[in-house]
Design brief:
It is a single chain. The chain has one domain: 2-Layer Sandwich (Double Stranded RNA Binding Domain), CATH 3.30.160. The protein is 27% helix and 36% strand. It has helices spanning 47-59, 62-66, 108-126, and strands at residues 7-14, 24-30, 36-43, 70-77, 86-94, 97-105. A hairpin with an 8-residue loop joins strand 4 and strand 5. The longest helix is centred in the last third of the chain and has 19 residues, at 108-126. The model is unreliable at 134-138 (pLDDT under 50).
């Protein structure tokens, strides 16, 4: 059982629109074993999909232990304007049950990846693969 968790270190995405545009993503995660892993050049349907696919490449062997899972997400900006924070809430269901992952960032793509990682970490805790983080009170 690992003490750490999956955390986003860096995310780079390239988007586009049109016939020849293909979104790409590169993601760097801190993994539960303390290693830093980067996946570059994944592609997908959109920028969020690319980023999630890059995370899944890093999960590699973890993904099968999660079982088959479904994600349902809602992403939005809190306010109008370019500096509005983006929020994402998603539900993951797998062999560990159902969990809610939430993410918040000035970039909605980053908010979605943070929400996804929070959900993955919660599923792994429920399955006994990760230790529950200890909350520190004031």
């Amino acid at each position: 059982m690992a003490d750490g968790k999956y955390e986003l270190v860096e995310l780079k995405v390239e988007g586009g629109y049109g016939k020849n545009a293909s979104p790409r993503a590169s993601v760097t995660l801190s993994c539960p074993d303390g290693k830093i892993d980067t996946r570059v050049g994944t592609s997908g349907v959109g920028m969020i999909d690319c980023a999630i696919q890059a995370v899944n490449f890093i999960l590699g062997e973890e993904a099968p232990r999660l079982g088959s899972f479904n994600a349902s997400a809602k992403a939005s900006a809190i306010d109008m304007g370019s500096a509005a924070p983006g929020v994402c809430a998603l539900t993951l269901s797998g062999s560990g049950g159902k969990v809610l992952g939430q993410g918040r960032d000035s970039d909605v793509v980053v908010a979605c990846v943070k929400a996804y990682l929070e959900g993955i970490n919660k599923l792994l805790v429920k399955q006994g693969e990760l230790r529950q983080p200890i909350a520190v009170g004031n």
